[in-house]
Amino acid sequence: MHPDMSKAIINDRVRRMREEAKAAAKAAKAKGRRK
Questions:
Q1: What confidence tens digit (pLDDT) does each residue in 1-35 have?
Q2: How far is the C-alpha of 35 from the C-alpha of 25, rounded, in Å?
Q3: In sequence order, what E strands does 1-35 have?
Q4: How far is CA 24 from CA 7, 14, 29, 30, in A?
Q5: What is the SS3 assignment for 1-35?
Q6: C-alpha distances in angstroms, 8 versus 16, 17, 30?
Q7: CA dist., res. 24 & res. 18, Å (int)
């Protein structure tokens, strides 16, 4: 694998993790409001 390829894959993974974290935070906030 080229270094650039692995770098792109890592960046993609980080972006996905951040998106999931944002979604989880939103869900947690929504749950908190419901109570």
A1: 578 889 999 999 999 999 999 999 999 998 888 76
A2: 16
A3: none
A4: 26, 15, 9, 10
A5: CCHHHHHHHHHHHHHHHHHHHHHHHHHHHHHHHHC
A6: 12, 14, 33
A7: 10
